[in-house]
Write a structure and sequence with these properties.
The protein is of the alpha+beta class. The chain folds into 2 domains: about 90 residues, PH-domain like; about 55 residues. The chain is built from 3 helices and 7 strands, in the order βααββββββα. A 4-stranded antiparallel β-sheet has the order 1-2-3-4. Strand 2 and strand 3 form a beta hairpin. Helix 1 runs antiparallel to helix 2. It is elongated and about 70 Å long. It starts with 8 loop residues before the first strand and ends with a helix.
Length: about 160
Amino acid sequence: MHLSEGEQILKVYHHHPTPFVFTLIKIIIGTIPFFLLMYLFKKSLPVKWYIVGHLIIFLIFSLVIIYAALVYWLDKLVVTNLRIVFIDWKFLTIRDETEAFLDDIEDIRTQERGMLSSLKILDYGMFEVETAASTITIKFTDAPDPEEIRNYIYHVKKQ
């Protein structure tokens, strides 16, 4: 992301941590069958290979968690005084960068789930920006407090 002359970064938003915790729980649950298999083969394996097997399983799933964390936390929504830039990492080697100028913004939609979104720990949802060109749409899922982001962008746009 390159800034134009006179452009300043005002605020940067990353994904809310709660959905990532749910992803971590899924990954940890996914390790259970592998450790269960190691336990079942405990008597047929020498102690050395039993320990090595556990270490290999632990290492593989640690790398999966690190990869998921990097892809999740590298995504960001950058609000500048001229535009909004959404950097979306698909994989560690592939990223999409979408921008929308503040003057071109026509509609900002937000979506939060249920009454529990009033709690800070569960206050996340979808944030979507549509521009006048209608071909540029920024869709930021798991956004922290989407209503606050929308209000902030409207505030910056008025200035």
